[in-house]
């Protein structure tokens, strides 16, 4: 591996000829020849497309408001002579607007700044955590520093409430008439991983949302289990993607709670949009169970319109392949959508054995929808489903409010970017942290603040 010099010596570059040893190796050639790749559109069996369905566009649309959440992060080095010392800065945004404003906007021959301002009703959430070779004051380790940083972020009061209140409401199912009494944490964060579970009892929670244990304080935010994958020497860069997806979805839950508490009948008029699939990944995957319980409760008691929008990955690549192939007739025509089964996923999208593998079993609370809209958008969506078995052989009845969701997603077309919709594009524009100049300026900010 090459390396760059920090002084006036030349950089150590990788050699330019060593690839020939790989290309000429018979073991490597044999390995590549024995790999399976995703199939092209002309390889798809017609019998596997019987699940194609047509969008019913002639239905009553109850949606009046759109709320979309997006977020991002960037990492920066704090000290020039210690580039291993790093912070991560996160920014999340929730965009809310009235769908009537969007409809009116689409009919105007010219769009003025004051018109766009109606769609910029944004609330920002900011977070910073140490990820390598940095310890927060009064904390003894990187693990405890990150635990405390996440805890403080959730405890921050915003509009007379906090994300921590929402987390308690979410974990212990306080939205229902029969909240649960306890939640099992796989391991005590103050002990080594694998030393046994720790039970969080609802009636034992302290006023500051902590729990007492003989080995030390346990935060309610420890339910995310991030402490299990933090390495004191190599850092915690691996948790950043997990944490981003987690907070994005819990911000949506936060607004659901506020609406449910203040005017719960409004839930029937909101479409909630998450950037990315409705799932939790890595160590946070256990959150998919309480999220499924919340969705099922709202669908039965009030109603819920929730969707995740994917912009990249194998499902998006497959969607383009079947809806807009390089040559030949598309498998998925305009106005059609497909609910890919477990067999379909492992046969055409992600190579695997569908008879022994269950896609999304331990992380998804939703099912996939591949949609080719009437106006040509090619979208991959996820919509809540009642249980994990709905993914194996999906039925339309398992995807509550699907036609209404697709109808509104189609209305939110964004011509600026591929595979996105207006609210997500707006949220991304308003909270994303670019390498230039955002990363450079944040690095200067962190360095100057640290040195004070």
UniProtKB/TrEMBL annotation:
Protein origin, superkingdom: Bacteria
Listed name of the protein: NurA domain-containing protein
Domain NurA: 66-254
InterPro entries for the chain: NurA_domain
Lineage of the species this protein comes from: Bacteria, Pseudomonadati, Deferribacterota, Deferribacteres, Deferribacterales
UniProt source species: Flexistipes sinusarabici (strain ATCC 49648 / DSM 4947 / MAS 10)
């Amino acid at each position: 591996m090459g390396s760059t010099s920090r002084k006036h010596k030349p950089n150590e570059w990788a050699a330019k000829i060593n690839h020939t040893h790989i290309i000429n190796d018979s073991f490597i050639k044999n390995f590549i020849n024995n790999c399976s790749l995703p199939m092209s559109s002309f390889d798809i069996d017609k019998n596997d497309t019987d699940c194609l369905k047509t969008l019913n566009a002639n239905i009553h649309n109850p949606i009046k408001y759109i709320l979309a959440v997006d977020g991002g992060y960037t990492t920066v080095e704090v000290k020039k002579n210690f580039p291993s010392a790093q912070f991560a800065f996160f920014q999340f945004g929730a965009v809310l607007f009235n769908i009537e404003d969007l409809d009116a906007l689409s009919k105007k021959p010219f769009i003025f700044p004051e018109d766009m301002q109606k769609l910029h009703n944004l609330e920002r959430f900011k977070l910073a955590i140490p990820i390598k070779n940095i310890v927060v004051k009064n904390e003894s380790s990187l693990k405890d520093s990150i635990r405390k940083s996440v805890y403080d972020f959730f405890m921050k009061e915003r509009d007379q409430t906090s994300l921590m209140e929402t987390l308690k409401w979410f974990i212990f199912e306080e939205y229902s008439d029969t909240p649960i009494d306890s939640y099992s944490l796989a391991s005590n964060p103050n002990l080594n991983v694998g030393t046994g579970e720790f039970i969080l009892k609802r009636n034992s929670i302290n006023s500051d949302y902590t729990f007492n244990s003989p080995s030390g304080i346990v935060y309610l935010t420890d339910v995310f289990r991030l402490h299990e994958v933090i390495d004191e020497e190599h850092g915690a860069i691996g948790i950043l993607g997990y944490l981003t997806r987690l907070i994005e979805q819990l911000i949506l839950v936060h607004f659901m709670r506020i609406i449910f508490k203040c005017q719960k009948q409004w839930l029937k008029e909101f479409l909630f949009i998450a950037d990315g699939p409705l799932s939790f990944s890595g160590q946070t995957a256990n959150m998919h169970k309480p999220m499924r319980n919340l969705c099922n409760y709202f669908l039965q008691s009030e109603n819920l319109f929730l969707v995740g929008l994917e912009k990249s990955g194998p499902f998006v690549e497959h969607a383009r392949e079947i809806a807009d192939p390089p040559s030949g007739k598309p498998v998925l025509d305009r106005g059609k959508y497909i609910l890919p089964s477990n067999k379909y996923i492992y046969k055409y999208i992600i190579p695997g054995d569908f008879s022994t593998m269950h896609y999304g079993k331990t992380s998804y609370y939703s099912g996939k929808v591949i949609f080719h809209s009437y106006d040509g958008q090619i979208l991959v969506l996820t919509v809540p489903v009642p249980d994990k078995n709905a993914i194996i052989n999906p039925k339309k009845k398992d995807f509550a409010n699907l036609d209404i969701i697709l109808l509104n997603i189609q209305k939110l077309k964004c011509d600026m970017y591929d595979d996105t919709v207006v609210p997500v594009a707006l949220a991304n524009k308003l909270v994303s942290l670019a390498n230039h100049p955002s990363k450079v300026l944040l690095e200067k900010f962190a360095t100057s603040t640290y040195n004070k």
